[in-house]
Structure formats: C-alpha cells, structure tokens
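Replying to the earlier thread about multi-chain prediction with a worked example.

Input:
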Amino acid sequence: MAQILAPRTRAPDFTLPVTPDQKLSLQDLAGKPVIIAFYPADWSPVCGDQLALYNEVLPEFRKHGAELVAVSVDSVWCHAAYVQHRKLHFPLLSDFHPKGAVAMKFGAFRESEGVCERALFVLDKQGVVFWSHCSPIAVNPGADGILDALEKLDQENENVSTASRSHAG
Amino acid sequence: MSLLRVAVTPDDHIQGSITAPVIMVEYGDYECPFCGLAHPMVKRLQKRFGREMSLVFRHFPLATAHPHAESAAETAEFAGAHELFWQMHDGLFENQARLGLPLYLSLAKALKLSTDKLRTALETGLFAPTVRSNFIGGARSGVNGTPSFFINGRRYDGSFEFQDMVVAIDLALLEAKASLAPHLRGA
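Result:
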C-alpha cells in the first residue's frame, strides 16, 4: 500500500472537475472539515457499498459541519452516470487527466493498477490532515473511523475555544 | 477489530435471554439479497445453539440503494410495537422479492394487526427515528455492509457459511464460560 499523507500534514490544494462544466477546489471548502474518500473505481461492488454507505451516513457527517468528496480516476461522464444511478448526494471528483495526479499528491495512487487507493482523509477547518486511513483495496473501511475523527475534531475545537476563553478571562 | 458500540438492552428485539452466554447481533436490511440468504442460516444457528445463543436484530437499511428497505424496517418496528416483531421479520425476509405496501398490509392482516394503523405509521414515519438510530449505532460500530454480525460485541469478519459461523460462536461460548468459570474453580 502507498504511504498516504499522515496527520498534521497540510493537504495540497487541488481543483478537479465534478461535472463536465463544473470544477471544485479544496479551497472552496475552506473553513469546514472535509472528508476526502479516494476509491478505485465507479461501479465496482465494494466501492458501491462504501459510497452507498456514506450516502446514508451523510446527514451525520453534516452534523459535524463536514463536507464529503469522493475521488477516483473515472471520467466526469462515468461519474455522472454513477451518481445518477446510485442517487449519490455528494460530489464525485474526476482525477482523470493527468491521471491520478491529485491522488499521487496524497500518496493515494496505486501505480501498478493505475487507480486510487481506498484511502480516507479527514481535514480540519484549516485544511490540515487530522486523520487518514488506507484500507486493503477490497475492504470497505466503513464510516466509523470518519465519525470518530469528526467527533475528536469537535472536541479539540471545543478545548481550544475553552482554552482561549479562559486565557482571555 | 470493530466492536459493538451500542450495548444490547431490553429495548432491543431479542430472541432468547439477554443473559445468554452468547448474544449475536445482526445488522440487516430486508431488501439486501445477502441478508435474505443469511436468514435461514441464522435460524439454523439458533436451532443449533438453543438457549446458549440469543439473537438481536437491528436495522441497517441502505435506503437509496434499496428503495423498500426503510419501509420494510418501519413495518417490522410497527409489528414490534405490538410484540410481533419476529413474526413480521420472518415474513419480510421470506417474501423479500415482494417487498412493498401490498405485502406489508397482507402480512399485517395475517398477524391481526390494524392495516390502517400500519399505513398511518408508514406515512408519518412514526418508526423512522428508531430505524435511523439503529443505523447510526451500526455505522459507529463499523458496520460496512449487510448483513454484519457481532458475536458477544465483536464483529464477525468470516464467511457466512454455517460451519464457519458455528466455529466462531463455539469459540465465543468457550470464552464466555471461561470468564464465568473462575468462581467454580475456586479462583
């Protein structure tokens, strides 16, 4: 497995197409925790389950104010068909050209197969990696790691604001 | 290893005693074909282990992938509110190919439940919060697909073959007995 970006690393900014005429930058999501789910391919059964699961857990992610984006090397047209078919309510980004360039920056590209790793990142509001996890390609990592990370992130923010309040006092 | 984050309580749908040495929790979806296949196997396990294993069922509907999963889960909860959860549960799994309101109404009728009340419960989403709370508890426990089984709180990651599950449950039984045994051994 690739060496993915570790906690406390600043996530590299990127801009990727979401639809044939729409792009999304990491910067657009600044100020919110961001979940980035790299996955090998649209339509493959495990990804199906993983993204279907996140689709259902989405309201929970949003309770923490977090945004979810998923990234694979599939083209925008492929993503469009997949989103429609699976009724996904979060954006799928297309790391199609140059192939896997963004995944590489996160250490989440599988050179041997030319696809993304099944890698998860939770970024804090400042765009720094707070938690990351790489699963074996055929294993759906579930949502528990993400939810735990978001909860810890909330606690840390709470501690920081308490500390700054008491400092101010 | 994933652990069950939401402890089994008397509020759960449980077949068998809450003090049985082994409690198996299943997170399932009535429209999931794998859960449908697992259903008779789970029954065999219950027969095999008798009083030594209790079964808990919790809902984990992947509703956008399975359009009937949520309504089926709410129908089971409706029956559960009238102490007929397991009868409805079996009826739903045994008729998995026909999930939908006509089936729910006919199952309810066969169980002498009010079809009007069931209709209203589904329309108002009366049991939706219960189903959602099961789902979130499952997601927190690392449920990544259905069915997912937890045997005495630990996620079972093996195959859904009867014999493989027997081995895992036997092991949990041994552990449970060993942890209860010290006072018998005078330890």
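Residues 71 and 122 of chain B are 7 Å apart (CA to CA).

Feel free to reuse this layout for your own posts.
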